[in-house]
Sequence to fold (417 residues):
Amino acid sequence: MRAVKSLLQQWLTVPGGLTSKQRWTYTALTVGIPLAWITHFGFIFLFLYWDILPLAAANVLSVSVWTFAIYTRNRLYLRLSYFIALAEILGHAMLCLLFLGWAFGIQYHLISILAVTLQVPLRTAWHMVAISLLIMGVFVGGYLYTEAYPPLTEVDALQLQVMAVINMLAGFVMLGVVMFYVTATAERAEADLAVEHRKSEALLNNVMPTVIAARLKQDQATIAENFPDASVLFADLVGFTPLAEQLSPDQLVQLLDGLFSRFDELVDKYGLEKIKTVGDAYMVAAGVPIPRSDHAEAIADLALEMRAASANYSHSRGIPLQLRLGISSGAVVAGVIGRRRFLYDLWGDTVNTAARMEEHGRSGEIQLSEATERLLHGKFVMKERGLVEIKGKRPMRTYWLESRPDVSNVSLSRRES
Fold:
């Protein structure tokens, strides 16, 4: 019993790697071949009982053909299996029409094989048209022949009626199975398409702002905007390059993923926009792509939490990590570049200055440009650093961001500039 169950399960299992139409063909053969084999095996004894020896012999041949079809189906020669089934059904239909006439009902099987043909992955549409015309030709030709000539064998009318009902039911059941499978396949394809659409939507929204992603889906034209009031933050892990040389690739990626994922959560918490990561550098913008009047405050709060999160992460992992952050505020240009891999990015002096604030900062410090300090004045605890030589710019007056006034107890002692 266990062996039978195992064979049945093996027979019904659809192998992977098949296209939707190949799966359909495989399933149709899985259902159709055993039914055909059993039916023709039964017909051997029926025609022997009716003393129609040519048809009994034909069914012996049919059983052999369907046995070979089992082999080709198991070897995934699906087109060959289909053509074997097609040839057998057409040949069997013509013999039955010749010996028993239209009343036997074998023609109803032609309807089901026609429905199967429309789902088989044939090489071209013309192959499908040609085979469909062949099936319809046998159907119409058989009807015209039986109207013009009597059957070669006389069988009791009641027996013919019983067989006609059986053939009719078998033909329409097979047609029903085809239609059910087509409908189920279409519904499954629509569901799979919806899932893939949601995945692509989520992926697009992960790589760029939601409002920009929505515009990009509607219009492929250039997306570029000027934002007169925005703030930009750059964060970098100090001394990460020599540390990375001591880590395996898996450890390196896991380390960055753990820390940057925490940063992502903080960005979402404050409703800001992560622009990109480059190596161990992390870039965030506030007031872009949706303007907000408190952009400097929001990004300052984020910077303070990122510094604390980095320290906590470093302590929990037992790895010396220190974050260096820089912020500047002002006008930026934002837009989407690329066609194969879209990137939402920022440009302008504010971006360059924020990058320089980080580059010329100190480990564990948040350095602000004078423009950002003016926006945060009276709202945060800050300390003037003084004039700093900035690469590519004139000396700039910069500031250290300490804390919010109400959390001054968490301020760290700072070295004098």
